[in-house]
UniProtKB/TrEMBL annotation:
GO terms for molecular function: L-arginine transmembrane transporter activity; L-glutamate transmembrane transporter activity; L-histidine transmembrane transporter activity; L-lysine transmembrane transporter activity; L-serine transmembrane transporter activity; L-tyrosine transmembrane transporter activity. The chain crosses the membrane at residues 56-76, 82-103, 172-190, 196-215, 282-305, 317-340, 361-383, 389-410, 422-443. It comes from Cladocopium goreaui. Signal peptide: none annotated. It comes from the Eukaryota. Belongs to the amino acid/polyamine transporter 2 family. Keywords: Amino-acid transport, Membrane, Transmembrane, Transmembrane helix, Transport, Vacuole. The keyword Transmembrane helix applies. This is Amino acid transporter transmembrane domain-containing protein. Its main location: membrane. One of its GO terms (cellular component) is vacuolar membrane. Residues 51-440 form the Amino acid transporter transmembrane domain. It is found in: Vacuole membrane.
């Protein structure tokens, strides 16, 4: 809900404001949660904190599901086997939830509103703010590039099915880039926020489509004709340790698939009465919903195509009207989401440049924009494997956002020794191990 203007509140906002004020007063009187009362008071001063817990769940679930991770996860599962892959998904989803928990505890303890990755880290570890900008820059740039790869994978066969001529992959990417790149040059991208709701609908339908191709209710949903699954006599394993190098390269994709830490601060800012238990409930619900969707798409996609599965699961299904429409919808969503990733990546790149040489101006903004756009276009045209891009992003930006930064922030915020601080240090060390090891494996 938007904040009130000119000191006036709607009836709903006024009711929520009175309710939140009474909750804060009760918390202060009882002394049950000093951190919560201070943070809620700071939110009230900035006219924040009117959203429901349900909206917070949708924000985090959309962060996990509304990108390219769901399309690439089935291929990662093929490197490990479905049973071992499910264990990896459970582990990394739990680590992601714990990282969100560490960040929300730190934000509430610091008590500044609105809180953000930058404000929280700057309050407790200002010398590490460059790491935040680096993580955001790399992650968002990589995700934007993966969107162009998705367009190159899905749009050409869909266009051919609807009667258009056979486009080369690079032609479709270039046409899509002309639209997405133009939108990325805008300074205000608020008009594209409607894609969040659309992305959840498209993801939901994609999972339903994968399920239909497994149960095969009609001839339309036969992924390999009359053959039994998996298609083409491909192999399906519960545990696959035959290629440790391939398994190591797939691990960052599992990490990438459950990264949502960047939006836990939006939940803390917008949801009313953000006690530790309430926010933890939002995190648990969002990641549980996301896990159900991702695991269904991954396991069923793998059971359909076995070890011959494509790095983009939608790329492997036979041409039909329903598949072609789904491919075009995903391509459209990717193009509209592209500027939403370039925008924060560019802002972080500019912040890093200001640390080195604090001179701004339109020329620097234009130069960074041009470099990011050209860089993502060239990578998307030359790299045809979506899994490779997701692997690099997962090993770098996602690992920093999910493991390293939450550990640093929590350890710096809570200085006294306790069990959770030790676990936070363990998450930090895990991230410091995962990132260099996976990067080395990716380039072997």
């Amino acid at each position: 809900m938007p904040a009130a203007r000119d000191g006036m509140y709607s009836s709903t906002q006024a009711q929520n404001l009175l309710q939140t004020e009474s909750q804060v007063a009760l918390s202060v009187a009882s002394g049950s949660s000093t951190a919560t009362s201070v943070f809620e008071s700071a939110k009230l001063a900035k006219e924040l904190g009117f959203a429901s817990a349900r909206s917070g769940i949708l924000v985090l679930a959309n962060t996990v599901l509304g990108g390219s991770g769901l399309l690439g996860m089935p291929s990662a599962l093929a490197k490990s086997g479905y049973a071992l892959g499910m264990l990896f998904m459970v582990f990394f989803a739990f680590c992601s939830a714990f990282g969100c928990h560490l960040l929300q505890c730190s934000a509430r303890r610091i008590g500044q509103a609105p809180c953000s990755f930058y404000s929280v880290s700057n309050a407790v570890a200002p010398r590490w703010t460059w790491l935040i900008d680096s993580a955001v820059m790399v992650k968002c740039f990589g995700v934007a590039t993966s969107y162009l790869i998705i367009v190159g994978d899905l749009a050409p066969p869909a266009l051919v099915f609807f009667g258009f001529r056979q486009f080369h992959r690079w032609e479709v990417i270039l046409i899509g880039f002309a639209v997405a790149g133009s939108l990325a040059c805008c300074r205000n991208l608020s008009g594209l926020k409607f894609t969040a709701a659309g992305s959840l609908l498209i993801v939901t339908w994609t999972v339903v489509l994968i399920i239909l191709f497994v149960i095969q209710p009609s001839k339309t949903f036969q992924p390999c004709g009359h053959q039994e699954l998996p298609c083409g006599d491909a192999e399906v394993k519960a545990v696959d340790l035959s290629d440790p190098l391939a398994l190591g390269k797939a691990l960052p994709v599992f990490i990438f698939g459950f990264t949502c830490q960047q939006n836990i601060f939006a939940v803390c800012n917008e949801v009313r009465n953000t006690t530790c238990r309430r926010v933890d409930g939002i995190i648990a619900a969002a990641l549980f919903i996301s896990f159900i969707f991702v695991s269904l798409a991954s396991v069923l996609g793998y059971l359909t195509f076995g070890d011959n599965i494509c790095s983009d699961v939608l790329k492997g299904y036979p041409s039909s009207s329903v598949v072609a429409v789904t491919r075009l919808l995903y391509s459209l969503l990717a193009l509209l989401s592209y500027p939403l990733q370039i925008h924060p990546s560019r802002a972080s790149a500019l912040a890093l440049m200001d640390l080195v040489r604090p001179t701004g101006g339109a020329h620097r903004w234009a130069a960074v924009t041009l470099l990011e756009l050209i860089g993502s276009l060239l990578i998307a045209i030359t790299v045809m494997d979506l899994g490779k891009v997701l692997g690099v992003v997962g090993a770098t930006g996602s690992t920093m956002v999910s493991y390293i930064l939450p550990g640093i922030v929590y350890v710096q915020t809570f200085r006294t020794f306790h069990a959770k601080r030790l676990l936070a240090l363990g998450q930090l060390l895990l991230g410091c191990i995962i990132m260099p090891v996976c990067l080395v494996l990716l380039f072997l």
